[in-house]
Amino acid sequence: MKRAVYVLFSLAMLCLVFSGCASKKAYTPLDLNADLQSGKLVQKTNNFVVLLDHSSSMNDPYKGVARHDIAQDVTSKLVQTIPNIPVTAGLRTFWAEKTKRLYGMEMLDKNKYIAQVDTVEWGSGQTPMGRALTAAGDEDLKGLPGKSAIIVISDFEHIENVDDLQPKNVMAAINKIKADYGDRICIYTIHVDNDAKGNILAQNIIKEAGCGEAVLAESLKDPEAMKEFVKRIFLDAAPVKAAAPAPVQEQAQPAAAAAAPAVAAAFDLANIHFDFDKSSLRPEDRNILKGHAEWLMKNKDANIIVEGHCDERGTTEYNLALGERRATETKKYLVELGVPEGRIKTISYGEERPLDPGHTEAAWAKNRRAQFVLNKNP
Fold this sequence. Notes:
Elements: H1 2-18, H2 33-38, E1 41-43, E2 47-53, E3 61-62, E4 65-66, H3 67-81, E5 88-95, E6 98-107, H4 110-117, H5 129-140, E7 148-154, H6 167-181, E8 185-191, H7 196-209, E9 212-216, H8 223-234, E10 235-237, H9 253-265, E11 272-273, H10 283-298, E12 302-309, H11 316-336, E13 344-350, H12 361-367, E14 369-376
Parallel strand pairs: 2-5, 2-7, 7-8, 8-9, 12-13
Antiparallel strand pairs: 1-10, 3-4, 5-6, 11-14, 12-14
Helix pairs in contact: 3-4, 5-6, 6-7, 8-12, 10-11
């Protein structure tokens, strides 16, 4: 009897270790479809491929959980959060100097995609990330219309001068992708650990790509944070439209003049947003500013104040300077688009006026912004 109990106990422990006997917790993603249907958001990314690290270091734990389990979980939640848009999807793994496409390239079927994610468990060998990036550009995304995203999910573990991940190969692959695709592609990284060396590499990948974002997997645990991340990858604010011109009425001049400020106020100058600790304009925000510039060129009696804002991280002095750089970069681009410089003023509020008082990545993303105030020329 004791032997039977011991065997049952051993089997139970194996189930816990290998996670094969426990069912996954249900995940309820936050809905992005309502904003799409209302016209507030529009699709900006037409294709994506996830590059999932399958190397041996992904077997190591992070805060008591195997990195490969974290990678599977964040990939599944990301896919579940994608709204109902027509998007061509791919899933590629890389390990032991090999890379293999497990899904796509085909229209996203979430159930089929996640089933393939679940097959990627115990890793082996080294980390040929550069090879996977090259395959994504040369094979997976080649010939596809529209804009694309590459999402790299990895521990970014590497040892300099060792034949493993080899950051130089990664950067060379990114340079080729940018040469082939230009601004039609952005790269996003999800770090399943939080070590300084891996974070630096993930950030350098985004810097080299010139478009995208580096995040930590643990920062996406909250469904709201995941929703905002998915929105930044796949969606964009709908282009603003100028209010329809008011019908001409036979009124005295003073009455017409009194009504003029309402014309400018009727136009909604949507906020633009910035990556963490950055003042450079992202492609999607440049598109928003093009709409603002077009309206301002048509309404020459309106001028604007560009407010620069930051999230709560950093000192007050640093954030005031960062907010000023964000406002200045925004003004500079509007001037490049043809808006007279004299019609644009800038001011920085640093972290003093958050849109969202929360202390999460989702709240910080909302607060890193340039905001616009319309004024009437005297």
